[in-house]
Fold each of these.
Amino acid sequence: MIRIVYLLVRPEGMTPSKFAEECQVHYDMSHDVPALHKYEVRLVNEEPSDTHVPYLDIGPFDAVAECWFEGSEKYEEYLASDIRKAWFEHGKTFIGQLKPIYTQELC
Amino acid sequence: MIRIVYLLVRPEGMTPSKFAEECQVHYDMSHDVPALHKYEVRLVNEEPSDTHVPYLDIGPFDAVAECWFEGSEKYEEYLASDIRKAWFEHGKTFIGQLKPIYTQELC
């Protein structure tokens, strides 16, 4: 399974409630995107810095999202899809900054 | 469900393979931690910067982890547990820097 985690920051001047609303729209749109096995987006509600190991001082973030794909063929199909392109166009309207992190299982 | 995402950076001087090995040990230990509903840890294999919206220039990261708890009572039980404390002690041996992100569902 290919899994990509995304950290999202809302655009300057966008309220948290408008951002949350657009996250919901983006989530609803995800169901029509071909070859996307699963999509999740969650809002950030706390970023505590009192960690038991040295704190990594980054953020704040507004949402964490994740995309799942069954394999590289499905991922290519997703990339080529016009519905996926329209989904990304919607992303441009409410994502101020984005950090993608491609992950892999422990072997 | 309480869900906390963690971004992990390995300590300076630790090799990626040693870090991966310790992530596996940490994962194996997680099964004994009381009130922890689920734990995942995945290695980072790519952090592309050619995003369709402005790139959030942070990183690099070495792993993304996530903890699930069934609710705040379970989370308190987890915090109070000696096994959890020993698990965090193991975390100190291989996590160089840590960023916790407490998330919530879209309403």
Note: The two ends of chain B are 13 Å apart (CA to CA).
Amino acid sequence: MKATNDIYKQSFSFPSGTVQCLFDISFDEQFPSPTVIITDENVFAFHQNKFSNTKTIVIPAGEEAKTQATVDYIINQLIDLEISKEDTLLGVGGGVVSDLAGYAAAIYKRGMKLQLMPTTLLGMIDAGLGGKNGVNVGRYKNMVGTIYQPEKIWFCYDFLSTLPVHEWRSGMAEMIKHACIADEQMFDMLEKIQLEDIMGDFKKLNELVQRNVKIKMNIVEQDELDKSDRHLLNFGHTFGHAIEKLLGITHGSAISIGMVCACRVSEKLIGLHSSATQRVLNLLEHYLLPLEANTNSEELFELLVKDKKRVGDDIHFVLLPQIGQAKTEIIPLSYLHQNIKEILR
Amino acid sequence: MKATNDIYKQSFSFPSGTVQCLFDISFDEQFPSPTVIITDENVFAFHQNKFSNTKTIVIPAGEEAKTQATVDYIINQLIDLEISKEDTLLGVGGGVVSDLAGYAAAIYKRGMKLQLMPTTLLGMIDAGLGGKNGVNVGRYKNMVGTIYQPEKIWFCYDFLSTLPVHEWRSGMAEMIKHACIADEQMFDMLEKIQLEDIMGDFKKLNELVQRNVKIKMNIVEQDELDKSDRHLLNFGHTFGHAIEKLLGITHGSAISIGMVCACRVSEKLIGLHSSATQRVLNLLEHYLLPLEANTNSEELFELLVKDKKRVGDDIHFVLLPQIGQAKTEIIPLSYLHQNIKEILR
């Protein structure tokens, strides 16, 4: 049993205010009491008792719920519940919940108070951090949204006890991404441990989550509006997003393959050492993440052309000069087209 | 004929960037060329030739268009036109167009470049300034939206040559509001001239528009997120909004009556001199604005209770200690209830 003052906090600053991260909070004793909660039907089914004293809006689970129709539903619920802009909305769930809760809070009465409680490893180290929110429009992902920071992010590891192993792997893909772009020491560390070590040891998990939160939030602090440094977080995501769309595999799996592609491009274009690429491949494999996809390279290229980071005939692409460092370069789409078979191998 | 460098500019600063106001631009020679324009069917019908070289999204005219359905339409058009977030969207129209264009720009790809060109006096001195945008949800006004500043605001007085006289009066109501809360000298000036002097003299108009832009933008610079000083701009709007809703009269007429009510409350609560109230009444009458409404005071009070600025049993209310100065006080709703007949008189 822990006292409330045991909570370890980290604060990050933005022009719009401060985001406070509260780590390793106790499910039973430190669960917050906001005015209204948004969660999905899966989280609600598992943890109904946590929400019994708070007005709760339950949305369907899964990416299909990330639409304007769900936002309309949430807004109407907030109106019916007579929620004011001074009230606090807490989003409890994975990336879909934080995207929808964040977006609804950003637009309701032109912005109400927001807090988030990610319930997946991916949410804790990536999706729930940085303020990006939004919904899909038809087949276009995150076509509409804002960047709106929560006042607090609660990290409650108890939720992870029911997290499926493929969800753990999705989180590990983004953790390896952070290691690749900004933290060689963590890369070394991840080589020496196993997924089971993290899943079974909340102290180790807490250490890693805090480290990853710091990496991502420090980058976002430098470039909240995603005009320069924040692009580095897209390492592996150019090919990754296209593969995810084409094959319908999990985000983590797609990003894993995308990082392999980005390492190969880095070898060719800025001389990343082939042994470094091999280390990245080995680390991804170590966490049972896929290294290649059986895709039609022409169809894949068609999707690359539609990437948000495309500018005319070129594309902003994140490259690794070495493990623990990243840079963005503008490369011609024609280069990717000519070499796509070798990049995908 | 003017050279482009004749344009008089004023800049205002926000955490998110700078807003540049460009005054008295020439309809024929200095009309901007953005990537895409949003306008309403009325403005489009009158000025079609201005838009012939630019992708233009035309929306229905009037407050009924201020809905999520229109936003969905705009977003789908932006997607179909393959607009990127680096492209510039220009909203040309009155308050409804600036609210919709601003909102669509704020959420499309998490924020694209925005410029505004207000075509009404009200738009030029109030609705088009300060970044507030949004749509109505059912009978709730501006229930959803953001605060998102345009990069540029173009002031092109040629549009006003077709503005109906009741629209001029609506603009004058907000101009008198600015005089009441922040500019006694302008109050004196408005007492000495006639609406016809302003309508017939673009030099006088330009002087007044610039003065009003400065008053509003300086207040918004101090408090973009509407947590303190920006509340002062609500002078006359507590009763005004309720009267507008109840009687369906124009915003300007409702705010005129609302300012009369607010002067009477100011007399009672903070000792505004009765001669000052009389000067405000005279000035409103001078611009043919109404001073009283034939309303059911109980129905009106029911609407006051639903005001956004209500906090429990109290309401944030803007009072005048004297002409040219304003302050916000928290007053009990019961006080308004007990005195409502005398306030409405």
Note: The longest strand of chain B covers residues 314-322.
